Amino acid sequence: MKNSIIYYSVGALLYCPANNKKIATSIILEKFGSRFSLALCLEDTINDIYVKEAVNILLCSLNSIYKAHKTKDFYIPKIFIRVRNPQQISELTEKMGESLEILTGYIAPKFSLENASNYISAVEKVCMEYKHKVYLMPIFENPDIINLQNRYKILYGLKSELDSVEELVLNIRVGGNDLSHMFGLRRHASESIHNMKPVSNILTDILTVFGMDYIVSGPVWEYYNGHGWATGLKKELSQDLLCGFIGKTVIHPKQIQVVNDALKIPVNDLNDAKSILNWDKNSSAFVSGNISKERMNEYKTHSNWALKTVFMSEYYGTK
User: How many domains does the chain have?
Assistant: First the structure.
């Protein structure tokens, strides 16, 4: 169970192509608010022949944000770069210069047993050589985890790899659309990925393997306009949280507030959580009705839930 607020704080992760020339200005002017994270993508969103150009634009964007913050106070989100391969981590870090200071970490797409050790080594090397802590966020989206004969072996193999640098793994991320693609599936705005059983079973297995030791973020929601998009997102977020996902990948700024509202903690839950964590350890009973006499609180049974609830309330607030 994670016991630091940093792991719960990625929240709404806004994806943006790394070649977006307006992103630095949008951050400096706080156009997206002050409670979100940012992923600058060099992978799927960039045409292969324009990668070099995208890298140059990304470096300029980071430098602009870094320099602007020296003279102006504004919210800098947690910034991550979604790279194409492990080698790109060291290449980008070397070129960043002082702007490395505002980078939170790297996102490793299509994370697999074949590339896991290289990604891990690349991040460890940055932390050691530059004395700057960068986090890793692997994405589980490879089709090899679909095969039931291999899935458990692969997932536990990946966990074994990541456990060696558990402190540096900020979140585990899941490729909902990539996995859906393998089955030729796509949900409408009124539907939830949790009802797409071939995909939701994979997500459940990921949570089962990683959910006790890592924060696992919910799959992307691709609707941001049209009838029922927000209602559908709220519904899926509710199911995300019930299953154990915390946070969500978003692809449009309009989705950020919906995610943030969903991550707020009900006041009754916070009251119960505090009561559980402050339980008299010398008490003869470790079970009691809650303050409102609506449900039972048990210290031994609910303490992990309580710790997570308090961390999330501290970052996202209450409702």
Answer: 2
Residue 279 and residue 158 share a domain: no
Instruction: Indicate the pLDDT class of residue 293, thresholds 50, 70 and 90.
Output: confident
Tell me the pTM: 0.96
Q: Of 263, 284, 303, at which residue does a domain stop?
A: 263
Residues 6+ apart with CB under 8 A from 116: 138, 158, 161, 162
The region, left, alpha or beta by phi > 0 then psi within -120 to 50, assigned to residue 218 is beta
Pairing of strands 296-298, 248-250: unpaired
What is the C-alpha R_g of the chain? 20
Compute the CA torsion angle 286, 291, 294, 300 (nearest 10 deg): -20
Q: Which of 157, 143, 247, 244 is nearest to 198 (CA)?
A: 143
Domain residues for the domain of 132 are 5-263
Q: What is the pLDDT of residues 35-58, one digit of tens each?
A: 999 999 999 999 999 999 999 999
Q: Which residues pair with 138 in a beta bridge?
A: 108
Pair (297, 148) in one structural domain: no
- What gap in Å lies between CA 129 and CA 227, rounded to an integer? 50
15, amino acid identity: Y
